[in-house]
Description:
This protein has two domains: 10-136, no CATH class; 148-339, 3-Layer(aba) Sandwich (Rossmann fold). The strands form four sheets. A six-stranded parallel sheet has the order 9-7-5-10-11-14. The chain has a four-stranded parallel sheet with strand order 3-2-1-4. A two-stranded antiparallel ribbon has the order 6-8. It is an alpha/beta fold. Helix content is 26%, strand content 14%. Helix 7 (180-192) packs across helix 11. The chain is globular and about 65 Å long.
Amino acid sequence: MKSELDTMQIPAHFIPCFKTEIAVDRGVERNLLFRTWGGLGDQICAEPTLRYALSQFRDCKLSLASEHPELFQHLKFDSVFDTTKVLPLYKNYLTFETIVPPDDTNLVWQFVNHMLVNCVDFPTLCALRSTLPVAAKEIILTPGPPAYERATELVGLGLKVNNSVFVHPGRHWPTKTFPKDWWDDVLAGLVACSITPVLIGANTDDNRGTVDVNAAGCLDLRNKLTVSESVWFLQRAGVLLTNDSAPLHMAASYNPDDETTGHTWTGYVATCKHPDLISHWRQGEWNYREVNLGVGGLWETVNHCPNTTQQITADQTDEVTLRSWLPEPSDVVSWTCERL
Length: 340
């Protein structure tokens, strides 16, 4: 008699990956391609992986395929593909992905999950099957100066960046989209303290953007800055207030050749991922000027034991539970004023 195992069909995502052997057969095993994708924050957090690969794989040609190649202009790849415009011919490369899809034959998702791994470690595990030396985990970005004259012309106001409070009222999953009235109270509290909040963020076609906050008394730069300009500002800002979103990772980056960068105070509210999983090394310190202002999160209510028989989701919650994770707006305002 045939056993159940004899007749069981094995899903395709359990098949071992033979991409290295295929690359050798094609003669392209030294022609490496690193592909970044996912959310903007995911791609920013891939920078240490790319930089480390360039420093280690010196006997290979390294190319980059990315939706945001401008983030990595300081890294000297042999070829760069802006995947919003053109795709590389993948068969000519041994490809490494900084985030792999859950059904990928690398089996990464059988062992790790991006919800349970630090945001900088996950790209390295996906691409290189390792983590980096601690000193290599800092995010280095070197954007050129933004079109500052254009920004000030758009809003008609000046901006002293290193003494300003940038606010990103991010909108994405329900687990990290805060109620409008909460953000409005934070902004009103800052304005009452004679602070002009600078609103940033951009609406995208994948339901990401910003909450429709009351912008009275604010400098509204939403949908007016490029990615590089946003990085430039946040590397030099006095304070950033945000949820778990791309600006958190922008503010955690710095340019080692510019001492005016990398000292932004970031007050973030972690609700979806544990704060240690979205925090960074910067200036040689863990959590340098990064403070989780939240008072709870999804990780307190979800059981991540690997023996579960039901799918675990991280994107949904009810408003009552979400509000229980949020600090009082007055506490956020007080923390901000103390940092300024």
